[in-house]
Amino acid sequence: MKKIIAILLAVACLSSTAVFAKAKAKIGVSMPTKDLQRWNQDGANMKAQLEKAGYDVDLQYAANDIPTQVSQIENMITGKCKVLVIAAIDGSSLSNVLATAKKKKISVIAYDRLIMDTDAVSYYATFDNYKVGTLQGDYLVDKLGLKSRSASDPVYMEFFTGDPGDNNINFFFGGAMDVLKPYLDKGVIVCKSGQTEKAQAATLEWSTERAQSRMENLITSNKYGPKGQQLDAVYCSNDSTAQGVTNALKSAGYTAANFPIITGQDCDITSVKNMIKGTQSMSIFKDTRTLASKVVEMVEAIASGKKAPVNDTKTYNNNVKVVPSFLCDPVFGDINNYKSLLIDSGYYKESELK
To answer: pTM for the complete prediction?
Structure first.
């Protein structure tokens, strides 16, 4: 009997030690900025789920400043974080600091944005970003009736994507253009500005203000307006650029009755409100709760000395290695399904969209 009690006490002690060790494990979470709603949600979801799983979390936002993000990651390394979860401001700017992390055997999960030019990235957790682009492109094909049009009955469209330092635009813009380029080549889509290349359509820092300024210039130079040159659609890779485009089009006299089709991504509150008003047509919904849950699974596996779960080992090459990745599935929201997608699921309260 004494032996049984001793064994039970030993097991209890080991179990307590394991829980204590887990509770003491520190995870560094580096987000690019608080200025965009989606990063606030991503950071909050990550922190909440990791803490619920028993981890100590150092969550930092870098104000879209690369040196700040590098400094914050350095502090996470010296603060003895065991795993770093990083959404990079610039995917090519972290090679040196992550080399230090690798020397200290700290695992790195690139979050949503692939970190480039380093072998220190252990895993990548994101949504299927190529599918984001194809969903946007397919939406435009459907709503504009492109399959039944010809060059004698074209649609007029302009193009906006994000920051050139964000590797994701290769997938967002690339996926959309794989769908739309055949129609451009046939003259079914006409881009009056001629700005259809990624570099021409890029928007530094995904800035709403920069997108608005560029759209205002396009309106002026191409004479777009409700009573001027026809404009049927503006492809926007995400909501912050879509909001800038929307602001410019409103100033040019467009209303919900004649607004061009505008795509987006992230289902930001402002953009969902614009969808309800009729001034943005759709937005890709990437449920950050799902991505946060997957990252927690990856952290749990790493902390247990196991390989993290992945479902893609071929696509994401960061110029040094193909990074094992887990891709969550995006879906699109519009006026027809936003309630079930966003409100019924508990992502937003209906009062937040008033």
So the answer is: 0.83
